[in-house]
Design a protein that fits this description.
By secondary structure, the chain is of the alpha/beta class. It folds into three domains: 2-103, Diphthamide synthesis DPH1/DPH2 domain 1 (Rossmann fold); 108-214, Diphthamide synthesis DPH1/DPH2 domain 2 (Rossmann fold), CATH 3.40.50; 236-331, Diphthamide synthesis DPH1/DPH2 domain 3 (Rossmann fold), CATH 3.40.50.11860. The chain contains twelve helices and 16 strands. The strands form four sheets. Strands 9-8-10-11-12 form a five-stranded mixed sheet, sandwiched between helices. The longest helix has 20 residues, at 216-235.
Length: 339
């Protein structure tokens, strides 16, 4: 099925629904594609006899799966649109199919525009799920211009070679010692920012949608974010009571890490409580009185992207170690969810 800007293989979902006689199907759509929800529903209803239930909860990634509640609704099958699977997450309450939204935009113009900004020889190529199919083309363009492109393999949370997630840059860090810089193909700032912080290498980002090329802007953003993170740690220096946040989304559950954090806080005579949530929001967290600082083990974006929304500082596990004196600021690392 084609929608503006993307191709989505809904026929694959149709085939599985028919083969298994699924009667009640849950459709999960990411925020950027929710305006097309009715087209997806009409396509599935026209080609199958299944009843389609739309999950209205926010969806930001393949980790954003809470299938147990749909099993309670007697759903047979879930279709998540817009992301590739996280391979090491398999034990779903109901069968689940991930259908990537593959961008149909030619990345060549954006890469050609980025060429003059690339000063290094060995270039690590990375992208998000939507453009991962274009990495070979990108590599050919780099070779023609005298560069040596390198594409790395990620850990068991990564579906495709060269793919990065907002919480996992293993496809980049696995080749960081072999490259001089990275070229990121995709939109937004969070992925290239995480790429800089996790690899400590220069990053050039080219956006296929706008043909915009960023390098200095990313360095400036990195400095701003690091100042914010330093400020969050400083604001927490007198904290006595901590809330440890654990996401219930299947791809974000780090309960063992939460208990490790609690042990660290106990050793420093700090009081702590463990909170679980599916979707984090400032009003809900601020309802818990007397918490001086939260530590998030869920999606790294909660602490970094949403920093300004929270009155109470939220730290990542690495930042807590710096606060407690277990690590130095110079050891700062981007929080990742790794296998």
């Amino acid at each position: 099925m084609k929608i503006p800007g993307y191709n989505i293989d809904l026929e694959k979902a149709v085939k599985i629904i028919k083969e298994n006689d699924y009667e009640r199907v849950v459709l999960q759509v990411p925020e950027g594609l929710k305006s097309h929800y009715s087209k997806f529903v009409e396509f599935l209803e026209e080609k199958t006899s299944a009843s389609i239930i739309i999950s209205a909860d926010p969806c930001f990634g393949a980790c954003d799966i809470v299938s147990s509640e749909f099993k309670d609704l007697n759903a047979d099958f879930m279709v998540q649109i817009g992301h590739t699977s996280i391979p090491n997450i398999k034990d779903f309450s109901i069968p689940t199919l991930f259908l990537n939204a593959i961008s149909d935009i030619d990345v060549s113009k954006a890469i050609e525009k980025a060429i003059p900004s690339i000063k290094e020889k060995k270039i690590g190529l990375v992208s998000t799920a939507q453009h991962i199919h274009m990495l070979d083309n990108a590599g050919e363009i780099l070779v023609k211009n005298g560069f040596e492109p390198i594409v790395g393999n990620g850990d068991d949370r990564i579906d495709s070679k060269g793919q990065i997630l907002g919480c996992n840059f293993s496809a980049a860090t696995s080749i960081a010692d072999k490259v001089d810089a990275f070229l990121f193909i995709g939109s937004g700032n969070f992925h290239p920012l995480g790429l800089i912080l996790s690899t400590k290498k220069p990053v050039i980002a080219c956006d296929p949608y706008t043909n915009e090329v960023k390098e200095k802007e990313l360095d400036d953003l990195k400095d701003i974010v690091l100042r914010q993170r330093y400020g969050a740690i400083a604001r927490s220096k007198d904290a006595k009571t901590f809330g440890i946040l654990v996401g219930t989304k299947k791809g974000q559950q780090r309960i063992d890490l939460a208990h490790e954090i609690q042990e660290k806080l106990d050793s420093k005579q700090k009081k702590s409580y463990i909170f679980t949530m599916n979707h984090f929001s400032p009003p809900i967290l601020e309802g818990f009185r007397n918490i001086d600082c939260f530590v998030s083990t869920a999606c790294p974006r909660i602490a970094i992207d949403d920093y300004m929304q929270y009155k109470i500082p939220i730290l990542t596990p690495v930042e807590l170690d710096i606060l407690l004196g277990l690590k130095k600021w110079e050891d700062y690392q981007f929080d990742e969810i790794r296998n």
